[in-house]
Amino acid sequence: MEFKRVNNIAGWIVFTIATIVYLLTLERTGSYWDCGEFIAVSYKLMVPHPPGAPFFLLIGRIFSFLAFGDGTQVAYWINVSSALSSGFTILFLFWTISMFSRKMLKIKLNEKLSSEQTWLIIGASAVGSLAYTFSDSFWFSAVEAEVYAMSSFFTAFVVWAILKWDLIEDESRANRWLILIAYMMGLSIGVHLLNLVTIPALGLIYYFKKYKPTQWGLIATMAISGGLIILINNLIIPGLPSLAGNFEIFFVNTLGLPFGSGAIFVGALVIAGLIIGIRYSLTHQKALLNTALLGLTFILIGYSSYAIVVIRSNYDTPIDENNPEDVMSFVKYLKREQYGSRPLLYGQYYTAQVTGTKEGAPQYVKGDHKYEIADRKFSYEYDPTQMTFFPRMYSNDPRHIQRYLEVADLAEGEVPSFVDNVEFMLKHQLGWMYMRYFMWNFAGRESDIQDADWLRPSDWFKDVPEELATNKARNNFFMIPLILGLVGLVFQLIKDKKNFAVVTMLFFLTGIALILYLNSPPIEPRERDYIYAGSFYAFAIWIGFSVLAIAELLKKYTGGKLAAMIATILCLTGPAIMAQQGWDDHDRDDRYFSVDSAKNFLASTAPNAILYTGGDNDTFPLWYAQEVEGFRTDVRVVVLSYYNTDWYIAQTMRQVYESEPFPYTLTFENYKQNGPNDYLPYDDMGLKVIDLKQFLTLLKNNDKRLRAKYRSANVVPSRTFSLNVDKDKVRKLGIVPKGMDSLLVDKMVFSLKRGKNALEKKDLAILDVIASADWERPIYLNNTSIQQFNIDISQYAIQEGNAYRILPVKNPNPDTDFVDTETMYDNLMNNFYYRELDNPDVYYNQDYRNFVLNHRTSFNTLAAALINEGKTEKARKALLFSLETMPDEAVPYDYTATRTLALLFEVGEKEKAVEIAKIIGDRAIEMVDYLIAENADLGMELQRNLLVLHELQRTLNRTGEGELAQKYEEAYNKALGNLQIDRRRM
Q: Given this model, what pLDDT does residue 937 score?
């Protein structure tokens, strides 16, 4: 059988293996983080967070049709699109390694291959592509609805396509491949921009084919490639819309033409320019110019998927982030302006003092008849002595500063030097935020606990605590894939320096170069290894080349074909051990709690409620539940991180599904961006308390007395607000929890939190809704929104499940939880969802375990409140239901179990309480001893386990279990003593 046929069949076999693996381990529904949002906006073609992913949404929409109207299956089918994208990534990686291997073996295009050469190439391609199939980061993205799987497909395709181009001698036929690459890059812009960083690697392949390599030629190639990235990333993507925006302002504001005329003019100008240019290149036989112009045309055709963002935004879809309805707002959307910027080549240290502000270009918003200046961009100016080249330690966030101090070993208030700056980059950004992820994929991983390290040889056979030993994400590859990759790297360097430069460039640009460009802050809310999957893709190519290297060595002792077969089998141990170790922590089958926890938030609320959440990541699953599965669409979910913007407040002023517009006293004009109510600082005017409704009326009327201190901003004249309550009306509404009528107040009084000296727009809007709803609209907050709300309203927040309802009912004892036990019991026991939480075969990573922790906390809160009301039997049922629904075998007990067992003692379940105490106590001793011995803390793990031991000894002493209490007290004291010894040694 000829090699081409064998190569094609083998590629499709590996594709089938990879795709089956991803389909078997696929997430059945919407997982945490951005996936819930992407599935929801794909299903109904809405507008996601900037800069959007319109082509991804279109593909997701197509796959959602396979659910045939069953909302519970939509997520599965959109996840399938990621699995198929990943399978095709593996297919093109296989063929890429195949072509690189032919070059390394110096096999000409039409040369017939021997069986030995066929075995070598197919073996190398299979080993490399299967290694990437089972790599930790790529596998993670392959089984969920995120953009990284499809982005990887585009990356793999363009690398394969440029190698196909390289094989074609007929220039006219070859140029078609260049145009195809340009089109695929244009499409990839509508998914993710990672594809663009492959351009220098593709440029090298082009250069090596067309020219004899020289030093200056290589420099010129890199310069041109960099220019192409800048052309697409800076000039085309935001540049064309920005140009259209400039013409739009001129045409509309100066010439008085209709809205959109400037954008239409620029679009026509670009199209006309391309047509004229292409005709000129054809007429004058300018092949290179023709190819370049056609490539640009197809990039723009691919990029045109972004039109869907503006089109759908104009339909006011339920999810319409940033509301990019016109050219001006669309440019802001593309530039991700809401996320700010980070210094790259020159900027401030975190210690730098702001010396002033610099005013920039005006920012326009669409008015009734023309574009109006809403504000001007500004930037901070810093003390020039505290500026530096290539700043890596720039953030003044207190959490970030603490990390800077730890990594660079600086004292509080010490000004860092450039050496400290470089040390932080090497140790943390390159070492911790890249190399650790790299080693996860090819050496092994300690666990799925946040900030877990990679497995070193000294960790391979070490006794570790049960919590780590049984963690399904503890994957030990014995560094086999890493060693194979290094062998392949050296082999290619020796045998094929040109293509070694290509793969190295790909490896560098999709890994280390991204680290340098992104300049990420030192603390992230979750691990970001998936960003660098392209770099791991390049390393997998070298893993494949290890077959060639080992076969060449074995040929000294046996025949060539047998050497190729043995080398393939030996090297397959790499992907085999990656598959065996990684299967259990990448298998997401039967995992539903991301959606169930979202439903439980919604189920905690009364009909037509408003539910405020703290951040977008804890909101996306709720959006999924509503938009895709149609669950509780009467509830309006409001993200506080967006609620500081006028576009988001405007969206709450319209009806969505059954959810009515929000009641506001202030108008949209009062909430306009860059107006006097964006940020209201406290100004002491001698008022102890101000009536909230009176304050809102003053703001609505733009009363000048509220600008006594600041001309551009209104102020808060008192730290404390009051709100009169019509008790009779409240009683008639029937919203006072049973048994709490005596706690109903005729006036609510609440204040700015300690340390807070201003109201943000989101705080003002929440207060406006509370005052204006007049208790006719249920208002809820969750844990994160209560923390982010700058008003301390906790004494009026009554827990009814996983959410807190704001009512004019005051907690008589602020030191205890305030609970509507009847409603909360019904919600937790009858209205909540707990699918598969009792199944020990399901893998729950830390994100899922944290949400289980939240639910366990809710059960503890309910049980404690029931006990205080004398309803001991009901509390016992709730606690036992919690233990039965979320058992230790499926989701290991966390630190909330210390309170659970204390409550179990109170309801007479002594035997169960002691059993739990022994389980969590022994685990805590193991973990504390291990962490102290290793001089490590895995984030907060040491503190959590010390807390468990401390609480256990107190509870057990109080409940008469003195012997067991003594055991944990001794362990606790021993740990503290060891910590003090370690500190003295340091």
A: 57
